[in-house]
Amino acid sequence: MNLGRVNQLIELPEANRRRGALDRLMGTRLGKLLSRIGVAPRQTSSEGLLDLASALLSLRGRASGPALASAFFDLYEATDMAARHAFLAQVHDLHPRDAAAIDKAIARWNEKRDEEAAQALNEATESPCQKLIRMLNLAPQGTQRLIALRSDLLSAPAQSEGLKALDRELEDAFTAWFNAGFLELRGIGWDSPAALLERIIRYEAVHSIDGWDDLRRRVEPVDRRCYGFFHPQMEDDPLIFVEVALTNELPSAIHQIIAEKRMTIDPHKANCAIFYSISNCQEGLRGIPFGNYLIKRVVGLLQQELPQLKTFATLSPVPGFAKWRTREFGEGVKVPGARQLRTEAARYLTTARSPKGQVLDSVARFHLGNGARLEAIHANADLSKNGQRQSHGVMVNYVYDLAEIEANHFALTELNTVATSKAVQALVDGEPVRDAKKGKRAA
What we know:
By secondary structure, this protein is α+β, with helices and mostly antiparallel strands. Helix content is 52%, strand content 10%. The protein is built from 20 helices and 8 strands. It has 2 domains: 150 residues, Up-down Bundle (Butyryl-CoA Dehydrogenase, subunit A, domain 3), CATH 1.20.140.90; 248 residues, 3-Layer(aba) Sandwich (Aminopeptidase), CATH 3.40.630.150. The strands form 2 sheets. It has a 5-stranded mixed sheet with strand order 1-2-3-4-5, sandwiched between helices. It has a 3-stranded antiparallel sheet with strand order 6-8-7.
């Protein structure tokens, strides 16, 4: 059989979908109105999307906005990824700010300096893509579809200036829309809807969930909790969630928490609340800062429910440690013993910085940026393949001491100093570390 013909047959349904979306649009009353004002979307997918975007920006009223925004997404979602990337790379550059309008608004402000002049200046300087984003949000499930669009943008192999500019516009919009004040904190349990629980299994990004039995062990026992942030436009799809273990002491390894066979404790006798997994669920919301609000809200809830809890901490991965070791010591260098490995991890977490001067490790940057303290470093704490690959099995505890959060945050942002326990500082300084319970040197 002719392989070229086979490929044509395979590609035909997608091509038909794209043409069908345009044909359906142009056959509607809205399509006829678009034709009257000279808008006839071209058959090439990226060009058709650009035409529909231009039409949305040219609308004077909002009545037709939802229908046209829906038509845009119908075409966008029927388009292959290469054409999506082509559209996303061009749309910002094709709709720059109106320089003449800005000059006119500035002159009016310089002359009048009143509220109307300020408003005119604000409108003149707004990016057309901000208006486009707002118009697209009018489509059915517009918020979710815009999040998916940004996920496509972030996956583009080459991040051109146009893509970067559009990403900034989307990030600004999402930061406003997903303000923590608009979000609902909701408990997630074994009795939650099945569709939601399926998403939890799929979205878990730290310690993979091996099916329904594993999920049940994490959300049903009385000494386990799970909480997620939800947006009103995405009621059954979490933005981020955290898994919590109630324990009697700080855990030093993940198997102590997620092992199939373990002892359940009375939550009213627990001393610690351990945040052992925090998963962002929406790639298109990368960089939107609501994770720190989640932890602080959950701490507040747990304090109300279980006032005897004294310690709020994490058992966290160190995802950048192995790569840093390779850069520091070379490829294939033997992993040292537990004591030396913990010393290297302590130095990595407290001294390694990105080109922008931030803490290099992404998880450390998150927790330390929230005002947590680096409390303890554990070797052989994550024996999974992923744990060995990214951190040679090292995991750490960050402690959220509410009385110290502001001071810790100030030390990091103003003094570039990581708040640590005495035990971690001793590792950094190369001093012997003693077991606080037994008074002996730790391995």
